Every structure is written in C-alpha cells, then in structure tokens.
UniProtKB/TrEMBL annotation:
Entry keyword annotation includes Metal-binding: yes
Protein name: Inositol-1-monophosphatase
InterPro entries: IMPase (IPR033942), Inositol_monoP_metal-BS (IPR020583), Inositol_monophosphatase-like (IPR000760)
Protein residues bound to Mg(2+): 74, 94, 96-97, 242
Top-level taxonomy: Eukaryota, Fungi, Dikarya, Basidiomycota, Ustilaginomycotina
Catalytic activity: a myo-inositol phosphate + H2O = myo-inositol + phosphate
SUPFAM superfamilies found in the cross-reference section: Carbohydrate phosphatase (SSF56655)
Length: 299
C-alpha cells in the first residue's frame, strides 16, 4: 500500500491544533478547580483527566481518518494496551508531554505526535498550545517552526549553530524524571555533577557547561535543540511517546540523536556523532527506560 506522508503530516498538524485546544480547555477547567489528577507511580508521575480525554480525541480522529493505522499512546499503554511496534504505519503519541507542568500551569507543555513507518519515525509534530509554538518535521523534507510572531513556517535550525569550541559554551537540558529511587538517582546525580561541575575547582571529569535547564517536557527539549536554542538534551528514562516526534524534528534539523551520555559528550567535541545516529526507534524504547540524547551538530 502506498502511503502519502505529506498528507499524513498535514493531518497531524491539524490534529495537533485540535488537541492543543482540548489541552487549553482542560487547563481552564483546572483553574476552576474541576479537573482532577491522579498519581500513576508516585507523586512525580501524574496523569490528568485532560491527558486521557486528549488521547481519546486524537485516537478517535486517527481511527476515523486512517482506520488501518496502528496506535501507541501513553495513556492507552498505561491502561494496559500493549501494542508492539511492527512495520505497519503506527502513530506514537503523548497527549500531554509535560504533565507536571500542565498541573502547575507552567506553560512548557505540548502534544507530541509521532508517526512511524516500517519501524522508522518519519513524521513528527509537536505543538505547545500555551506558547502557540508548532514544530513539524517530515523525513527528507526538513523541520519547521511557526510561532505567533512568525506564523509562516521557518526551517530549522533558525540559525546555523555556532561551532562550540567546548561544552563550556553549551546550554544543556536534562530532566530529573519521575524515578528517584536511590540507585537511579545516584546515576543521575553523578551525570549532573559531571555535566555541570568545574574540573578546575576539583570536580573530577566536570564539563562545566554554560547553563543547565530542566523544563519538564522531553518533546520540547528535542524541539529546542532542533531550533538551536539548546545545544544538548540528556535524560535517562524516556518512553517512545516522549521522543518519537522529537526524533524526526531533531534529525531533520541536523541534530544527532544518540543513545548514551558518553556518546553525546564525545559528539560535542568531534564529529563522532555521525556513527551513532539512530535510524530506527530503538525497540527497547517501547518497553523500558533508556538514555536519549540530542544535540545540534556544530562542527
Ligand atoms: C515526561 C516529561 C518529563 C520527562 C519524562 C517524561 P509526561 O513526560 O517529558 O520532562 O522527564 O521522562 O516521561 O509524563 O509529562 O508525558
């Protein structure tokens, strides 16, 4: 069967706007004190009524437009639907990426719509409704951003990334994630220390990056690396729906998506990144917690 990726991308962009509208409406109810949220695993892992309602809306619209496509969504997964990734056209969706932000009214929240064909992410749409930032990418056709200030889509990266002489010039995002048990937290803390620490000031292996950010949305971290406003994003513990759209948008903007912190750190100072690009969604992303890193290739 032939699939028309341009048409699917147009559909996905329209869908992201509808989902964005639902997220805004859900947020308005939140401030009226009507919308509830539940803890999934612990107090740092939340799901809201709006997550579930938005996923249902998106899933229903896709089923109507593309009845034969497969669907993998964060909330369907949480509800016990275990769809394996196959060669079939598959939507991989996070209805609200940045749920904690959503619950607190912190505007770094988005819908993340990824589309995978023959196990390869080929379309990505990320829409942040509070900011009205829309990112979309199609394999082989580049990534684009539209904002209220610049409604006409502009190709990413917005400016050629400056070659970074070292990590000391880099703005790096990393996330704390919701898994804070001692062994996992110890790994994260060691990595954070290594990324931020001053080796001249006694922190062994410290990279002393220029700045660090934890904005609370994996998808928007990818989008900002793609746009060139972050140099690197590192996290342990992402899921396919957090990263699927971002992988397309970032790669189409010339970023490397690599699988470990060390690979990412190495790639910042050389063109080693080349050999370490993922061409497929790593299948283990569907089942587990992984390292995911993105950077703009600056050299
Ligand atoms: C989470 C956010 C968070 C990241 C987690 C994600 P959610 O997604 O992107 O920043 O640290 O790894 O799972 O739960 O808000 O959809």
């Amino acid at each position: 069967t032939m699939i028309d990726l341009e048409e699917i991308q147009t559909f996905a962009v329209q869908l992201s706007k509808k989902a964005g509208q639902a997220i805004l409406e859900g947020s308005a109810r939140r401030f009226e004190g009507l919308s509830g949220f539940d803890e999934k695993k612990n107090t740092a892992d939340l799901v809201t009524e709006t997550d579930q309602a938005t996923e249902k809306l998106v899933k229903d619209e896709i089923a109507r437009a593309y009845p034969h496509h497969k669907f993998i969504g964060e909330e369907s997964w949480a509800a016990g639907e275990e769809n394996q990734l196959t060669d079939e056209p598959t939507w991989i969706i996070d209805p609200i990426d940045g749920t904690t932000n959503f619950v607190h009214g912190f505007p770094f929240t988005c819908i993340s719509i990824g589309f995978v064909y023959r196990k390869e992410p080929v379309i990505g749409v990320i829409y942040a409704p509070f900011l009205e930032h829309l990112y979309h990418g199609l394999k082989g056709s580049g990534s684009y951003i539209s904002t209220p200030q610049h409604p006409a889509p502009r190709r990413l990266p917005l400016a050629e990334p400056l070659p970074l002489p070292s990590l000391r010039q880099a703005l790096v995002a990393f996330e704390w994630g919701s898994d804070r048990k001692s062994d996992i937290l110890a790994k994260k803390l060691r990595s954070f220390q290594r990324i931020t620490g001053d080796s001249d000031g006694g922190v062994e292996g410290g990279q002393m990056v220029q700045g660090v950010r934890s904005m609370g949305s994996a998808a928007l971290n990818f989008a900002n690396v793609a746009a060139g406003s972050l140099d690197l994003y590192w996290e342990i513990g992402c899921w396919a729906w957090d990263v699927c759209a971002g992988i397309v948008i970032a790669k189409e903007a010339g970023c490397a998506v690599v699988g470990s912190r060390d690979a990412a750190l190495a790639s910042l100072s050389s063109s080693a990144a080349e050999g370490q690009r993922f061409n497929d969604i790593p299948p283990e992303l569907l089942t587990g917690r992984k390292y995911v890193v993105v950077r703009a290739i600056a050299d």
